Each structure stands twice: as structure tokens, then as C-alpha cells.
Amino acid sequence: MNELLYVVVVVACVSWIRREDYHLLTVGLTTYSSDERFLVEHARHLQSWGLQIKFVTPNDAGIYECQVSTHPPTSIFVKLKVIEASAEITGAPDLYIKSGSTLRIVCSLKQNTETPVYVFWYHNDRMINYDKERVSVSNDKSISVLQIYEADKTDSGNYSCVPSNAKQANVNVHVLNGEKPAAMQHGGRNNCSLITGHLFLICWCCCLLPIIMPITYYEQEREFIQILLNDFNYNRKMIFYRFFGYTR
């Protein structure tokens, strides 16, 4: 006589909730948010559930709850802080230079974690990176330098430093005629920055205890943060921060 062996498997359901407005983002593998930037990923062999946020913005900052439907429910709270990198131009908002000399504007990156793919320079809304006559642009990791040789009155106006992954910076340039200008150009550095990025949060489902983790996420194109929570010997927790390259 054959015996039938029945195995009952209980799988805890994992939900991700944005605590600010108690908005239910995901339940299990299903996304309930109308915002298509929120996705869930599940690695069955690791018993991990991931919340991925694409194109992170400062509005995404706040506390997120990973809730497991055990009895009683178990939650992990993740505090997300988003820092937006920004561009700065030394001497802004105004630079003064004598006619006939070399105009040199320095744009440097602040709070960035990756070199921008490009930095475009604009003069009165016209891109000048590829102007061969009198214009030179050099980039070195977190710094971009614009130089215009033998500057004249036509070079006066608004200049913008626009990195691929950063908020732009602007400066007004005044080219002065005469031997004693009111002010001369100031040299220095500033800060260029980054915007969009991807955030990946992972919740492990074994032996969870309530915990609050502060996380600072630096917005950046082609990068996301993965937060791993693991349990060792049922009585202590380890938190690992791992950074991965990511290309859209």
C-alpha cells in the first residue's frame, strides 16, 4: 500500500511600505504602487526580498518598512536620506576679467561618487564645448575647466556648467575694457553634481528583529546601493553596505 506524504509549506509574505504616507508599495512579488519606479525582486534561494527605486529623487527620502507577515508581524525600518550633488563655480555669481586676457572658469564636483560622462559648457544658452577658435575645455575626474583665450566684450554674459549627472551652476562674466578694471577674475574651484540613480533595498526574512537603519544615498547615474541584512546565530545582526555599478 502506497502512502502519500503531504508537506505543508508556510511562506511568509513580505510587504514594502512607505511610512510617510503609509503607502503600500509591494506585497510579495506584486507591485501596488502606480509609480513605475518601484519594483520588487525576490531571490528564493536567499529568502531575500528587494525593493528597487529607479531614478531616485530627493522626494524619495524618508522611512521605508519591510514587513513580514509572521505572527506577530516583524518589521525592519530603513531610513533613506538622498543627497543631491551640485555644481559650483568659484567667484560666482560674477567674474570680472580684462579684455585681451584669458578667461578661466573652474567647475568642480561636490558630493559626487562618480566622474560624469560629460560636462557641457554654455554661453548664453549656446553650447561652446566644440568651438575650436579660442575655446578650450579640459576635464579631470571631478573638475572641468573652461578657457577662452584673448577674451573680448562678446565673451561677456552668462556661463553654465552642466554635468551629465549633476545640477548645473551658472556665473555672469564681465569683460572690461580699460587698464584698471573694477575687479579681476577670481580663481578657484566649485562643485558639479549628479541626479538620477537607482536604489536597491534588500530585506532578509529569517529571524528578523525590529531595527532602524540610517542610510545616506548619493544620487548617481549608473549606480545603486544594495543594503543587505543578515542574521548570524539567531542573536546578532550584521549590516553590509555594498556598491555596484549599474547601467540603464
Keywords:
248 residues, mainly beta, Immunoglobulin-like, six-stranded mixed β-sheet, five-stranded mixed β-sheet, disordered C terminus
Question: In a nutshell, what does this entry contain?
Answer:
The protein is mostly beta strands and 248 residues long. 0% of the residues lie in helices and 51% in strands.
Name the CATH class of the domain at 86-176.
Mainly Beta
Query: For this structure, what is the CATH homologous superfamily of the domain at 86-176?
Result: Immunoglobulins
Based on the structure given, which CATH architecture of the domain at 86-176 is correct?
Answer: Sandwich
User: Major beta sheet, specifics?
Assistant: 6 strands, mixed
- Read across the widest sheet, the strand sequence of neighbours is 3-2-1-6-7-18
How many DSSP E strands? 20
Strand content: over 45%
How large, in whole angstroms, is the Cα Rg? 26 Å
**Helicity level:** under 10%
Mean pLDDT across every amino acid position = 73
N-to-C series of helices and strands: EEEEEEEEEEEEEEEEEEEE
Reported by name, the CATH topology of the domain at 86-176 is Immunoglobulin-like
Mass-distribution shape: elongated
Measure the end-to-end span: 58 Å
* Number of helices, where a helix is a run of at least 4 consecutive DSSP H or I residues: 0
Going by helix content, strand content and strand pairing, the class is mainly beta
Low-confidence stretches at least 5 residues in length (pLDDT < 50)? 1-11, 181-197, 205-248
